């Protein structure tokens, strides 16, 4: 119930915190996350997979605030990282290295070296070049790297093209034919233990079918490898579980049905299943609070200009993603707005021709589904400082990121003091 945006709109409270009072205390725009909503999602997933040998490695990219990562750590959740920056955040938040998996097509030698040195649990390897590099770096460190092959199962995740990753034409993973050669070639390596499979086919997936098809391919391949004498200790099934962005319209996959599918497909697997949920754990647990700056009429259209913008929440601009927008005042007469931010781009639009109650300057609105890929994708475009983030928990709140100051925003910049020759 913590995540149902209609309840929040009706009560104007989120995780027990009065949103008007909060917005009076914290200048808008800001992100607010419900700790209880996140804990509920974690518990739901843990319960669904109860009794199965599994590890949940939260995809840090979804929301990488250290306080969110600490909340994950306290619930026993590990991390799926894609950079050394995410590694450092995870460790700083108290997620132990042995609960961290490292994914991504562009891991550099330096990144591999650092991750290996701190002892991350597994590398999800995506190219032959990376595999060779991993083995070499491990040899230099006198270590043995644990690795899984990211398989590209060539299935359509039936989601937005920009967040679809499991088709053969995408840059992610390798074909089963290539993976097969890797297992043959790596067996007996002293510095590389290739004993896992990994697949992640995309994000915001709203039906079980793409998962079923991809995971069946992975499991068929796993059995083939075992028959050929290879030991497979882990299967990482990635993330991708969708959430509701349109209250009452989006129908996310039920986690218990998802878990039942995974149990059925991997019934004969004795190793560890790894999950990498990002959006599912935090997406609906976050809102972006914004105030109307003014209403601008232009012929037929009315623009509701709010103080949040595409630099704060990029998803509508980048993916034409729908986010529910709910004014937090009493109902007035109906109106339709293009809800736009102050950034100087036509694409700085949160919604087009959206029906809602009439708004005036100073009104508070919330944008739903902002917990995942919101603050983590933010920028300072138009020299707008990074926005504040607040964690809510049972009627109390804590600022988990203060609004960036001008000095912080320009901290790395300097006038040329000396001109160097290369
Ligand atoms: N594992 C891997 C290897 C991934 O690449 C991703 C997300 C995840 C797990 C987590 O996926 P999730 O459970 O959150 O669907 N910025 C986009 C989403 C990009 C997802 C990238 N990879 C958006 O705002 O929709």
Automatic annotation (TrEMBL):
Co-factor(s): pyridoxal 5'-phosphate
Residues with the N6-(pyridoxal phosphate)lysine modification: 61
Ranges of residues in domain Orn/DAP/Arg decarboxylase 2 N-terminal: 37-282
Amino acids binding pyridoxal 5'-phosphate: 240, 276-279, 373
InterPro entries with a match to the protein in the record: Ala_racemase/Decarboxylase_C (IPR009006), DAP_deCOOHase_LysA (IPR002986), De-COase2_CS (IPR022657), De-COase2_N (IPR022644), De-COase2_pyr-phos_BS (IPR022653), Orn/DAP/Arg_de-COase (IPR000183), PLP-binding_barrel (IPR029066)
This protein's UniProt keywords: Amino-acid biosynthesis, Decarboxylase, Lyase, Lysine biosynthesis, Pyridoxal phosphate
Pathway annotation: Amino-acid biosynthesis; L-lysine biosynthesis via DAP pathway; L-lysine from DL-2,6-diaminopimelate: step 1/1
UniProt-listed Enzyme Commission number(s): 4.1.1.20
Its job: Specifically catalyzes the decarboxylation of meso-diaminopimelate (meso-DAP) to L-lysine.
Family: Belongs to the Orn/Lys/Arg decarboxylase class-II family. LysA subfamily.
Complexes and interactors: Homodimer.
Protein name as it appears in the record: Diaminopimelate decarboxylase
UniProt organism field: Lysobacter panacisoli
């Amino acid at each position: 119930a913590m995540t149902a945006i209609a309840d929040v709109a009706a009560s104007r409270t989120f995780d027990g915190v009065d949103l008007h009072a909060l917005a009076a205390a914290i200048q808008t725009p800001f992100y607010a996350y419900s700790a209880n909503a996140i804990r509920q999602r974690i518990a739901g997933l843990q319960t669904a997979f109860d009794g199965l040998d599994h590890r949940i490695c939260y995809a840090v990219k979804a929301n990488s605030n250290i306080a969110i990562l600490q909340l994950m750590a306290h619930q026993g959740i590990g991390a799926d990282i894609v950079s050394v920056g995410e590694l450092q955040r995870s460790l700083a938040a108290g997620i132990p290295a042995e609960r961290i998996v490292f994914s991504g097509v562009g891991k550099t030698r330096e990144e591999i070296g650092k991750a290996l040195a701190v002892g991350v649990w597994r590398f999800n390897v995506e190219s032959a070049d990376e595999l060779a590099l991993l083995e070499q770096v491990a040899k230099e460190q006198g270590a043995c790297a644990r690795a899984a092959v990211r398989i590209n199962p060539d299935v359509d995740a039936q989601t937005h093209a920009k967040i679809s990753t499991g088709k053969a034409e995408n840059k992610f993973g390798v074909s089963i034919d290539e993976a097969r050669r890797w297992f043959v070639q790596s067996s007996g390596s002293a510095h590389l233990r290739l004993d896992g499979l990994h697949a992640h086919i995309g994000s915001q997936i709203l039906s079980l079918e793409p998962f079923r098809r991809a995971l069946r391919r992975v499991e068929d391949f796993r059995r083939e490898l075992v028959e050929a004498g290879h030991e497979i200790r882990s299967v990482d099934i990635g993330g991708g579980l969708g959430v509701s962005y349109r209250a009452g319209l989006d129908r996310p996959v039920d986690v218990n049905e998802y878990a039942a599918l995974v149990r059925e497909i991997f019934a004969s697997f004795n190793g560890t299943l790894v999950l990498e949920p990002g959006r599912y754990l935090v997406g609906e647990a976050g809102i972006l609070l914004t105030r109307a700056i003014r209403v601008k009429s232009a012929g037929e259209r009315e623009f509701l200009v709010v103080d949040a913008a595409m630099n704060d929440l990029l998803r509508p601009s980048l993916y034409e993603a729908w986010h529910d927008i709910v004014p937090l005042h009493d109902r007035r007469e109906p109106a339709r707005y293009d809800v736009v931010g102050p950034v100087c781009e036509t694409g700085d639009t949160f919604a087009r021709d959206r029906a809602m109650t009439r708004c005036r300057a100073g009104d508070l609105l919330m944008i739903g589904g902002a917990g995942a890929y919101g603050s983590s994708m933010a920028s300072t475009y138009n020299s707008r400082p990074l926005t504040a983030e607040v964690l809510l928990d049972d009627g109390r709140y804590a600022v988990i990121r203060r609004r960036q100051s001008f000095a912080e925003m320009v901290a790395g910049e300097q006038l040329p003091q000396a001109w160097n020759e290369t």
